[in-house]
Amino acid sequence: MLPKFSNKFTMTRHTKEVNALAVSAQGALLLTGGNDARIALWSLASGEMMQEINVHAAGYISAITWMDVDDRGETMFAFGSSDGNIQLYERLNDALFEFRSSTIAHSGAIESLAWDANHRRLASAGDGSAQVLDTFTPVVSQPEKQPYIARTVHFYDKGASLLVSYLESGDVLCYSIEPWDLKWQKKVQSRIGNTALDGNYLLVSNLKDGVDKYAIPTLQRVQSFTHVILDNIPLQISVAKQSGLIVVGGDDGFARIFDYISGAYRGQLLHGSRGDRITPVASYEGRSGCVLVTASCLSRHSSVKVWGESEVVSEFLIHGSYV
């Protein structure tokens, strides 16, 4: 039985492309960031904007992650921007988030951020290399720079290792963190637009015909989620495993939903108009069910949509849509 989704809220604060989404650990809050150099904090219960942070000096917002430093996981977050800076914000006693610190992690835009709650470390990708920060102090003194774009980072092996993927070459490098050392380097069968880590599997948006699932550490392809790609843009991936779903961003006005087990296409989340890029996606699974988030990447005002379960159905038509 697969859930069916309906649009709960539409948020329209961003005036340019939305690049990054992050749902808090408890599913109560959503962070959005985009090319308007704006971070917006939203309530997923009401759809209301709770806070707005403008950082025009940093350039566009390219990545966001919550930092689960307590049981709630809603008191600290970090974001990366086009100037290579990572900024940390924190709040106390449910007050507004306030700036705490900033560090220059890369000489170019921050492509990806990841948080390891086990060791309380933050990882970043940008400018052809990866970096790990411990209490905002770099763990890697001289990160090795590749001649390709470092696209994504993921903590692996309970935070003992870091996976770094590269866009043009299709390389995936695995580093041990203490000490920092290259454990292995392997190549997937395509370029890497975006990735999502699910246990011992790496899902790769291949910029050609969909998403491929690779087993770690062999990087053997074990499954594919095939769909048409019109534009050569990296599409984000989100896994809602308990609900049996994979959500993939789109380049024609909608995001796609696939069955996690079979790989079958299950429908669309109709977000915008034909030709609109709906690149960012996110998901959260809690007691009240599964919540999906999509966002548009328009040069004018962009929107963020929150989708909640409306009912459970046994199957969908192959061209079915969620509206």
Keywords:
five-stranded mixed beta sheet; 323 residues; mainly beta; 0% helix
Question: What do you see in this structure?
Answer:
The protein has 323 residues and is mainly beta. The chain is built from no helices and 29 strands. A five-stranded mixed beta sheet has the order 22-23-24-25-29, with no helix packed on it. Strands 1-28-27-26 form a four-stranded antiparallel beta sheet, with no helix packed on it. 46% of the residues are buried.
Query: What class, by secondary structure content?
Result: mainly beta
Envelope shape: globular
Query: How does the major sheet shape up?
Result: 5 strands, mixed
Strand content: over 45%
Kindly provide the radius of gyration, computed on alpha-carbon positions and rounded to a whole number of angstroms: 18 Å
Q: Given the structure, what is the number of helices?
A: 0
Amount of helix: under 10%
| Distance N to C terminus | 19 Å
Spatial strand sequence of the major β-sheet:
22-23-24-25-29
Q: SSE order in H/E notation?
A: EEEEEEEEEEEEEEEEEEEEEEEEEEEEE
